[in-house]
Amino acid sequence: MTERLSDVTARIASVNQLEAVITAMRSVAAARSHEARVQLDGIRAYARIIADAIGNALAFVPRQSRPIASGHQPDGQAIVALCSEQGFCGTFNDRVLDAVGRMQAGTASFGTELLVIGDRGLMVAEERGLAVDWSAPMVAHTAQVAALAGRISEALYRRLDAGQISRVGIVHALPDASSTMDIAEKVLVPFDFGRFPTLHAAVPPLVTLPPQVLLAGLAEEYVFAELCEAIMLSFAAENESRMQAMISARNNVQETFDRLRARARQLRQEDITNEIIELAGGQLP
Length: 285
Fold this sequence. Notes:
The chain is of the alpha/beta class. It has helices at 5-58, 92-106, 119-127, 145-161, 211-280, and strands spanning 76-82, 111-117, 134-136, 167-174, 182-189. The protein has a domain at 31-195 and 209-242: ATP synthase, F1 complex, gamma subunit (Pyruvate Kinase, Chain: A, domain 1), CATH 3.40.1380.10.
């Protein structure tokens, strides 16, 4: 079928509309990534306050009685995989789930429960045949981070209290302005108190709880802060990955647009040439 100028013109209009959508998606992703990076400072300041409180609480516990991370092999583990809620983010979910596979392979001697965050990540996990034990939607805005961290904490501590697991790991992407994307793998439980230096304040803080109970509560609070930070980092990384995907899509759209414009000029010239030939031959009424 002969291509007509009107068809090419209609395709050019469609490509222009698509480019506008891609530009808007890129702008939204950039704004969300920036907002997430700004919010990270507050989360990290909160974590530092909890870390200082742990250091102060350790001063009330004799060194031989301090809790330490268990060195024995756990009976079971949970892995939290922070994926994306929406698409158009390239290989983001594949990279995260590849890291989950490596973590599972390294701990194949005991059972693993997989907790997947993000509906799009859940779809990819199911396509890979992974058994997902629990899932939740990923945040769409930074204001939802604390609520999601609370949901994940509840799901993890239910399993810990029931004795289903004794180890918790988390896998998430790290934001990076370049096209590369690093993946972080971190152990949340057993909680390592050895990371925190003992603080001896000039004026000891007033303590109304037994030190061991206080430390347990502070450890849970610190894990919550770590979850908030991981979610915020993953959210920023997801949107930066989407930005990169939209940049690539825009380049492809621009190439298509250039080809269509060239084809439209060619067809317009052919139409003009045909009209001249018809006029020269006296074929027009």
